[in-house]
Structures are given as C-alpha cells and as structure tokens.
Amino acid sequence: MMTSFDPLARLDAQMSDVSDVYVGAGQDAESYIGDLERALREAVCAPFLVTATVDEPGIPDANVGDTITGQCVAHSEGYWLIYQSENDRFMCFSGADVENLGAPGIFGSPLGCWSA
Q1: Nearest to 81 by CA among 32, 23, 42, 30
Q2: What gap in Å lies between CA 35 and CA 28, rounded to an integer?
Q3: pTM above 0.85, yes or no
Q4: Which of 47, 45, 50, 32 lies closest to 111, judged by CA?
Q5: Cα-flanking dihedrals φ and ψ of residue 73, to 5°?
Q6: Helices (H), the chain
Q7: What is the pLDDT of residues 78-93, one digit of tens each?
Q8: What DSSP letter does each residue of 7-38 carry, written as one string?
Q9: Radius of gyration of the CA atoms of the chain, in A
Q10: CA separation for the pair 19, 52 (Å, rounded)
C-alpha cells in the first residue's frame, strides 16, 4: 500500500532534521543552519509535478538515465527541492530549464538537500 503525504506538510515536519547538513570547520553551526532554513523557506512554492533524468552517481530505486518524477516544493537559481511521496523522500533536481532537469543523486532531509 502506498502512502501519500502533503508535500508542504512533510517539508515543514522535516525542517528541523539537520542530521545530514554539513557544517564546515570554523563555521557557526547555529547561524549557518538558520541562514539555510531561511533561504529554503524563501524558496518554497506551491507544489507542482516535475521530471528529471537520473544522473551519476544515481539514486536508490532508479538507474542512471531513468526518468523520475516528484513534487517541486522549493526552487531557486537552478536548484529544485523535490518530494517523492511514494518513497517519502526529499531529493534535489538541478538545471536552469524546468523541462530539462537532472537528478544528481542528492537526497535526504530538506535542509541536507538544500545545503548540498
């Protein structure tokens, strides 16, 4: 049985997960994560369906070259945060043209994806 989640509700619920956010040496973690969260919240949009071609290194459950879909929940300057309800997973698509996006293998928490 597939479970369907509201993409924006999942985004909000997982916004506090910073387990996969890399904070560089010498950076103030609290400030960096706060700025990252603000930037992501500013880029949030009404969800819409997008597709992308899986690029190297690939992602679980898809092969390089496959076409995958998901709900875009945020985008900024060629960076697209996607929610896949069938996998309850956030991932990033990249590209300047929404009709020609790639999925470069970035997935995890919303902030982890946005910081990659």
Answers
A1: 42
A2: 11
A3: yes
A4: 32
A5: -115, -10
A6: 7-14, 29-43, 110-115
A7: 999 999 999 999 999 9
A8: HHHHHHHHTT--TT----TT--HHHHHHHHHH
A9: 14
A10: 26
